[in-house]
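**User:**
If convenient, please work through this fold.
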Amino acid sequence: MDRGKYLVEVLAHCSACHTPRNIMMAEQSSLNLAGSPLGGWYAPNITPDKSGIGDWSQRDLVTYLKTGHLVGKAQAAGAMAEAVENSFSLMTDDDLNAIASWVKQVPAIPTAVANIGLQSPRGGVDINSVLTGQGTLTDSSTTDGAKLYENACASCHGHDGQGTDDSFYPALTRNRAVSAFGPQNLVMVIVEGIQRKTSNTDISMPAFAEQLNNAQIASVSNYVRSRFAGIDDKVTAQDVQTLRDGGEPPFIMRYINWLMTAGILVMVCLLAAFGIGEK
């Protein structure tokens, strides 16, 4: 267990991404690994609560860390895809099991979850019948989410979001980026795509940052969340731009000028008071 603690808390520094921070940007130890915004993305709750990874087995965790993919549960993207490709996928099974054992025993912390609508099960399709590539944006001006999905996404994920039988193209009906409490990760996957290589897989989803504008990305995100998770989001073009820019800046950055001014005034007052006291 000590090995797992060392790997999680020191070498892998999981809390740097997955633990929320206070207004001074220090990690909130009482919310260790409970999820946090991360440069436009959202590093999810990885505590053993049902709102986190409570329904994951130790083998599930090891599989995800080694491959970046867990059928019906998660796909690594953004910074996590980089961590899988450059770190976790290169570790021994013993070390991965040590990490999984430690994460599974940290305090479970409940966090908010989305109110997901009931979805009818849909079967996958044969990957050989899937049109490869990123689809064709036949109408580059539309902001109709359904049309954008059919033109840019359905060729891989399926018209009903069912993915392929082998899950190479994942289902959107069983996808945590789609059904998460917030839309951040879905939006950022559309913006940045996914690039992830391991010893036996090479995953690539195209980025649409240059092909779709903010209003179109907002529209297709809302459509996917509504159609495949029953979540009624109202992502706006401004929301997309904010995520593109790295997300909402932390408190200390939003008010740095005011804080510096207040600090200077306090110093001036203290110096003045000290000078008066000496007289």
In short: The radius of gyration is 22 Å. The first strand starts at residue 36 and ends at 38. The chain has a mean pLDDT of 88.
